[in-house]
Amino acid sequence: MPWLAPDDVLPKAIETLVGAGTGNARICLVRDARGRIRIAVEASAVADPEALTKTLEGALGAWFAGPLVYQKGSPAHRRIATELFRDLPPWPDDWPKDYERLDGSRAPIPEWLKGRVVLNSKESWFARGSPPPSKPRVVSFFSFKGGVGRTTTLACVAARLANRGQKVVVIDLDLEAPGLGGFLGARSTTGVLDHVLSHLATGAIGDVNPEPVDGFPGLWVVPAAASGIGYLEKLARLDFLAGTSASEKSPTEQALRALIDAVAERVTPDLVLLDSRAGLHDIGGLALHRLSQMDVLVARANAQSREGLRIVLDAIRRLRAVEDRDVRLVQTMVKAPFDAPETKPLVERWRQDMYDIAIETIYADFGDDPELEVPELDHKTAHYPLLVAERDELTRADRLHQVSVELLPSFDEIANVVMPTLDAESED
Q1: Confidence of residue 99 (pLDDT cuts 50, 70, 90)
Q2: pLDDT in tens, 70-94
Q3: What is the DSSP letter of 64?
Q4: Which one of 122, 200, 394, 401 has the largest count of C-beta atoms within 10 Å of its C-beta?
Q5: Distance CA 18, CA 198 (A)
Q6: Given the DSSP bridges, would you call strands 106-108 and 113-117 parallel, antiparallel or unpaired?
Q7: The three-state (H, E, C) secondary structure of 321-370, written as one string
Q8: Whether 42 contacts 93, CB under 8 Å
């Protein structure tokens, strides 16, 4: 058979199953973690399972992981098939919505054909989980690309909020490239990784003691963990994937929620800020879709960030109800002054790009009903990037104390969005 590209496997499997004339009884097409196709059929769906198996093998080659699982088979097959058909999810959003008939016309996927995705990772980017608790207020800072100033921006916003009388805890979830703890001068020998591993092994989170940040009363940090070769061993033992499913919190999600609860009990903060790692990582997905009430997406104005934000905003649209899409964008490394002739057109172009993407993603379900303009999400401004100026002082800073206090008010616009109950006129 000719070579099949990964993107061609699903259409070919659908075409084969529809063309096999299996009737109207349900068939479940399962795509496993390697992208291979498995098939489960109800008892009356297929008169000759062996013939269908050979047809699928001929059409899909090694992409078909047989044999068929059906309710007339062995006791093990019957149990698997029964379980699959007991609670079938909707046809996956990213799968083809139609197929090509023999005459070249296209038809919608028939009702009897069902689909299920099996993943070993990234489940938090696909499956809707339970909403995060309302207290404490938790906000994630996320960037699709690294090197955009996400951690520095978060730290400066946190410091500004602390100077304005708020109690803020920041947590470093960039476990594979930690930096927030060092930037805030943390000296602790234990951190997020230790607490998560403890919870995974024992069900207990341990003694969480957020570390005060020198020079900023009201600001605490929970670093990733102490550095050294032992960090690599601990990271290797952390299984982000175990037990993750659409209906059950993963052990890592349970551990992170327990960590936030422990922080809230110890410090009683007004706000918890999560520094999520860059890219489409499991931890980033948990932070955005399971742990936070608000997502701050940090990016530079370039093509890579634009396409990455499209993916992230579309995931938010699919996984969060309209009233829960509390999103703000931050554009970093913008040349000041912002209204300069060489800067203003670039800023306006990026804002237009973000609006166009928002219309296709997080705004797609709003319609024209004014009641959808809920207080939690002003959908006229959610796409509108807040600006952070490109400054040598920020680029060179290895520690927060190297950033002048006089610079922190320039982060007020982000601070007011992150903590909307603040009195914006309050003094340091």
Answers
A1: confident
A2: 776 667 667 777 777 877 778 887 8
A3: B
A4: 394
A5: 49
A6: unpaired
A7: CHHHCCEEEEEEEECCCCCCCCCHHHHHHHHHHHHHHHHHCCCCCCCCCH
A8: no
